[in-house]
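Protocol step 4 of 6: structure prediction from sequence.
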Amino acid sequence: MDGRRISAAIFDLDGTLLNTEQVTKDLLKEFLVGYGKVVDMEKEDKRMGMIHHESAIAIVKDYDLSITPQQYSQSIMPMYHEKWLQAKPLPGVNRLMKHLQKHGIPFALASNSVKKNVLVKVSSQKGWEESFSVILGSDEVKSGKPSPDLFLEAASRMGVDASCCLVLEDSLVGIRAGKAAHMQVVAVPSIQTESDQFSIADYVIHSFLDFQPQIWGLPPFDDWVLNALPIDPIHFKGSYKNGFLEEISDINASDIPGQAWGVYFGWVDFDSHERFKIVVSIRWDCSCGFFTRNIQACFISGSNEQIRDQQIEVALVGYIRGFQTKQNPSTDAKILDDDKSIALACLDSAAYSYHRCSPA
């Protein structure tokens, strides 16, 4: 952005590459029930990105728990380990990693988690451990984020000048660490907010599907097909009413990544084995004072009468565009005739075929 050519990338892990925060979001709530305590989300949001040791001390103090931070960790960590194995890559992550590999751009992983926990998460993703030039945990440097130590050590091990590194982070703690290391920083916020706190980053995107390598002097993507982007399928169950989809989840956590934001298309399956084509617009709405997911839906095959009062299984397989949320999100998020035309052409193409709409 300021004339420095990027020659390496450094990723955060939790909430940036993997939806670990999404699959573990209710663990603290479940833990605190046993102590008669209720989660304070304002405090937990501010804790995002902290190293576990510091977080454990703060949680024991904030909730006045009758245990030590060490006892807290011993009790809750097995619960986290189980959930981490269920974590999935966030939209566009595998695409970007493969793109960097293809063009010989080294990339590192620098996490505020300790190294052994980082490896548990990474090893559950096929091919990831071998893809990173460097994998670092906070226990391998003097101080974790927001200190720049992790990022500076990653750059040193890659043999790259810090000023030529691009940091990709989801938390304010990580963004501050990247800026303290005098690196360029892209924020991919995992908290659905338009807060100006992320303005200290050099660039803010809602998901890696919106990442543009050429901005940083990197080779551009060349994988768009028929004016859309094939994606790793996003699965969820839902019900349709009055032009909108409501997600139905078997568990408390959503099956739709928090970073899913924009216009997508895909397939809908019914118990009757019928299959329809669909375009959806996914955004977050805060008009009621809190964030809720808003999924506008347009079926481009079949009829609304056939869909009403049925549970459906959705597999989104393509991405068309994002929108400028700071302007008029309700207008930007409308499904346009162009979106329908693009989706219809794509879903008749083999590049967007899908054989089974069923959550993994």
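Step 5 (inspection) to follow. Residues 88 and 293 are 20 Å apart (CA to CA).
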